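Slide 14.
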Amino acid sequence: VPRSSPISFVDNPDFQIVKVNENGVVVWTRTYDFGQEELAQDMIATSDGGYAVLYTVFQNDAAFSRWMKLNAQFDTVFTREVNYNGSAADIRAKKIAEQNGGIWIFGDKVAPNTGAELCFARGYDLNGNDLQQNEWGEPFAKFRDMEYPGGGDFVAVSDGYTQPGAGSKIYLHRYDQTGGTLVWQKEFGDPQASYTANDICITPDGGYLIAGARFSSGLLIKTDAGGNQVWQKVYPPSAPGDSINIFLGIFHITPTN
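Slide 15: predicted structure.
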């Protein structure tokens, strides 16, 4: 369980990995301090018996993303920065996963001059060497979540808008296992309301279920395996009259048998 200590305006926050037993009792805590403000984002166990941790570093009013490889004893093997050669003011990596013997990192980044946002996927081998990278969603897009449908491909859900003041839409992209070839893309939206996504899961029939919000109501969108919409549900069906001050959203979904 990765966690970060409370942000302090005096001391740089560190992050920790905490092991708990089946009763929720802390067995041990390991602190990782790299001398800056660090916030843990995600953590996975890797196929070589170690672990990979994704974290964000805050420095000079900008955010930088890094990932750290750990061995089975949770000792640091190496760290890598997710960089784009100065082409982004903020790089916000949000999810780390392993697929086909490689590490994949997903997130979004902000262009330094225009403020435009792009979603990205970056691939590395288990030794930290670059494998592949891809970007999508310009000009104003935010990565939300991804799933592996099989065959090495990945499906990513994001949301964004085409220009300032426009309503937000939800976007679904499927890429092949290289991360560089688009298989298909879909968009979901309504001119009368903004759509945002929070989570995606694969359904028992091989399709997808997207959770998020439509304006100020919770939203579920069911698609088939090709990303085509099957149905859409809003909760509650009618937003309350003072909904401008209320935000309702569905933030996590899990399939059941």
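Speaker note: The longest strand covers residues 140-150.
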